[in-house]
Amino acid sequence: MKLKSHKVSPIKRIAATIYDLFLLLGVWFLVGSVGLWLNNGEVLNPWLGLFMVFISTWSFYAYFWIHGNKTLGMAVWKIEIYSIDGKNVTIQQVSIRFIVNLLIVFFAGLPLLQIYFSKDGASISDHLSKTNLRYI
Predict the structure, then answer these.
(1) In this structure, is residue 4 part of a structural domain?
(2) 108-128: string of b/e by CB count within 10 Å (b at 16+)?
């Protein structure tokens, strides 16, 4: 496998995330439907619903990052996640990366600008989770 570059621009990261959000919509509808079915059609507690969305989203990313090193959105943009130490991506790395990426979304993506100022082209979530993205 020939690697073109390990620096993935913020625009490509955002594009892959948007693609994955459409897939996640389907997951959220499924989780919500199962929750309603299990609760006999009664609307769930909003906090329980938010928790279900959080867990299903984390599970989506954890599964795809650990089994294949990419989500479908990342595959479309030819991006792959890898552990800096050369081993497989771990649950701990996935969890750290997921939480930090949630904070990045909360701040409207502004922390992604660090990529332009970082000599290795890594974002905050890359540094904290000891993972990185590369083109495949």
Answers:
(1) no
(2) eeebbebbeeeeebbbbbbee
> What's the domain range around 114?
10-135
Q: What is the pTM of this model?
A: 0.88
Classify residue 64 by its DSSP letter. Answer: H
Helices (H) and strands (E) counted in the chain, each on its own, are 6, 2
Share of the chain above pLDDT 70, in %: 96
Tokens of 13: 């990261």
Which phi-psi region, left, alpha or beta, contains residue 99 (left: φ > 0; alpha: ψ -120 to 50)? Answer: alpha
Inside any domain, residue 31:
yes
Overall number of domains in the chain: 1
What tokens appear for 113 in the block?
């600008």
Strand, helix or coil for residue 109: coil
